[in-house]
Amino acid sequence: MKNISVFILSLTLMGCVNSHKTNNEKEEIVKTSKVEKPIVPIEITINKDVPIHSYFKWMDSIVATHNRTHNYAIDEYLIVHHNKWIIDTLANTDYYYLMDKGIFNEDSQALIALKKDQVLIIPDSLETLDLRAQLSNTYLELNIPEFRLRIIQDEKEVYKFPVRVGKVGKKYMVMAKGHVDMRTKTGIGEIIRVNKEPTFANPVTNSKYKKTVRDDGKVTALPAIPWLEPSINGVRVGQLIHPTTNLGTLGRASSNGCIGLRESHAWIVYYYAPLGTKVVSKYELHGTDDHGEPVKFKDIYPGFESLK
After folding, report:
1. Among 74, 178, 175, residue whose Cα is nearest residue 127
2. Please, are residues 168 and 183 in contact by the beta-carbon 8 Å criterion?
3. What is the CATH number of the domain that holds 173?
4. Does the annotation mark 258 as catalytic?
5. What is the C-alpha to C-alpha distance for residues 107 and 9, in angstroms, rounded to an integer?
6. Of 16, 53, 70, 242, which is the active-site residue?
7. Are strands 211-213 and 219-221 parallel, antiparallel or unpaired?
8. Is 265 a catalytic residue?
């Protein structure tokens, strides 16, 4: 009888142990499933071709819909930096890039920015934080006598573009209602305005135009690339960063004060310089060439360096 009691007690204890183990296994399964559950990316399949002239409105609609239906916000810059092929596509609409391939295009706004059936991947909340951090650690740096605009991210140069800068001299400009020193100004500021629908006008006469004559003599429509306006030392000086349709003016003091880039480079600068991006405009005669060798640049604004 005593042996039977011991046997029953042993079975009872074993049952308790097995039951406890089963509960632990179930708990472990639940924990594991929570950890390993994959994040399903948000994908948007483009349902029709989107030309450049409709591109910004299309992007705005995507951003608005997402921000209305999700608990974290995105913007156009975050979408594009998460799908960097978009920058390449837009940059490749550059008139001179296409001409080098034997393609004449009279109106870049009619070119396709996004093709039907292409897929955009929307960044998740963590990816959004990372992208915002990258852009917040990005700034533009212009060295006037070098005719170079750099994009600096995390204190490293990621792009360097040839530019044109302001001429030497003063001129009366109807747009400014007075005489203007056309030399590009130095100082530190930030992007205070992004104009996605710029009006092209001659600042001297304030006369508007919608066509441009290219370096090869061909006449085309104007590009729909946003213009950026930085403040300099807290002041709006009318010194815009925008595309030029004439590559022959790059590397020269040939503008009315603005910083001009080729179209492909203007697209890239736009996407690395949202509102609030720091802008440094300097006048340094000593630097390095493309091979890292020391070089002294031509003093295009005599006496300007001493004003720093």
Report:
1. 74
2. yes
3. 2.40.440.10
4. yes
5. 90
6. 242
7. antiparallel
8. no
> Dihedral of CA 77/83/89/94: which sign?
positive
* Number of domains composing the chain: 2
Query: Which of these, 176, 144, 149, lies nearest to 266 by C-alpha position?
Result: 149
Cα–Cα distance, 78 to 123 (Å, whole number): 7
Please identify every stretch of the chain with a pLDDT value under 70, giving residue numbers as ranges: 1-38, 305-308
What range does the domain containing 107 cover?
Answer: 42-131
Distances 56 to 51, 75, 77 between C-alpha atoms, Å: 10, 11, 11
Establish if 101 belongs to a structural domain. yes
Which of these three, 110, 131, 152, is where a domain ends? 131
Name, in order, each residue with C-beta under 8 angstroms of 204's C-beta and a sequence gap of 6 or more. 171, 172, 173, 174, 175, 256
* Per-position DSSP letters for 249-298, written without gaps between them: GTTSEEESS-EEE-HHHHHHHHHH--TT-EEEEE--SEEE-TTS-EEE--
Asked if residue 30 belongs to a domain, the reply is no
Closest CA to 90 of 217, 185, 199, 226: 226
List pLDDT tens digits, range 242-277.
999 999 999 999 999 999 999 999 999 999 999 999
Q: What is the pTM of this model?
A: 0.86
Catalytic residue among 16, 66, 81, 258: 258
Domain co-membership, 142 together with 120: no
* Cβ pair 168, 182 in contact under 8 A: yes
In a shared domain, residues 296 and 150: yes
